[in-house]
């Protein structure tokens, strides 16, 4: 059973090439309103979006994210932040620094961003998340003048697509959707998925890669270590208790 919403969700692709066409104020407002309508734990509303219109800041963020040129070329670039500073401004005696608050901020902000992506795609736009803003998170914090209890989680490029990549095949349902209890992985099913991904990687028009999915896991995880993150979080007022 499909409908237009499910079809839209299942057609999602990351878009990294954009036309120069600017978004209208009405489009920006619609995307923001959809983002803000996302679920909020205990209605804390612990997320903030910073829209980057300053081209110098865009260029610095593109550099910090690993020279990702589409941070510069996308008509819109928004940075999504977990934010308990707003609550601290309301009442400085609130008990902040708890690990659970980090989880709340990350979860709520991710849900908010996904609402924004779905809204943008419904308008014929494309998006890609930029986790690379955390590569030089201290500099990003200074650049965006983020106070304590604000955490930049990721950026989001938004614009009219100038490419049409195929959706990436996802893991089979049997490897990620369980009844009642966790189940260990079926290596035969994983091998079949690796073959599917190997074919996808070899046939796509750009950024072709040898191999399947699982053989890339060690390199990908090790690349995303960011060993400075715990000390940064403590300095910024997160998970200190």
TrEMBL record:
The lineage of its organism: Bacteria, Pseudomonadati, Pseudomonadota, Gammaproteobacteria, Orbales. Belongs to the flavin oxidoreductase frp family. The keyword Ribonucleoprotein does not apply. Keywords: Flavoprotein, FMN, NADP, Oxidoreductase. It comes from Orbus sasakiae. PANTHER family: OXYGEN-INSENSITIVE NADPH NITROREDUCTASE (PTHR43425:SF2). CDD domains: NfsA-like (cd02146). Residues 12-160 form the Nitroreductase domain. Gene3D superfamilies: NADH Oxidase. This is Nitroreductase NfsA. InterPro entries: Flavin_OxRdtase_Frp, Nitroreductase, Nitroreductase-like. It holds the Pfam family Nitroreductase. It comes from the Bacteria.
């Amino acid at each position: 059973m499909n409908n237009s919403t499910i079809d839209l969700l299942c057609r999602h692709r990351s878009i990294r090439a954009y036309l120069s066409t600017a978004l209208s104020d009405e489009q920006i407002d619609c995307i923001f309103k959809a983002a803000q309508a996302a679920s909020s734990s205990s209605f804390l509303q612990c997320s903030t979006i910073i829209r980057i219109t300053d081209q110098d800041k865009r260029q610095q963020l593109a550099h910090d994210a690993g020279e990702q040129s589409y941070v510069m070329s996308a008509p819109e670039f928004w940075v999504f932040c977990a934010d308990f500073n707003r609550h601290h401004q309301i009442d400085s005696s609130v008990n902040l620094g708890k690990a659970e608050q980090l989880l709340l901020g990350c979860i709520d902000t991710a849900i908010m961003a996904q609402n924004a992506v779905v809204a943008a795609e419904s308008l014929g736009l494309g998006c890609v998340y930029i986790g690379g803003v955390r590569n030089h998170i201290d500099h990003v914090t200074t650049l965006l003048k983020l106070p304590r209890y604000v955490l930049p989680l990721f950026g989001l490029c938004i614009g009219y697509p100038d490419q049409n990549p195929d959706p990436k095949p996802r893991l089979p349902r049997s490897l990620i959707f369980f009844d009642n209890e966790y189940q260990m992985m079926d290596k035969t099913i994983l091998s079949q998925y690796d073959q599917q991904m190997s074919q996808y990687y070899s046939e796509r028009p750009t950024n072709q890669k040898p191999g399947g999915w699982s053989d890339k896991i060690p390199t990908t995880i090790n690349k995303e270590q960011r060993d400075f993150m715990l000390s940064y979080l403590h300095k910024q007022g997160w998970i200190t208790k």
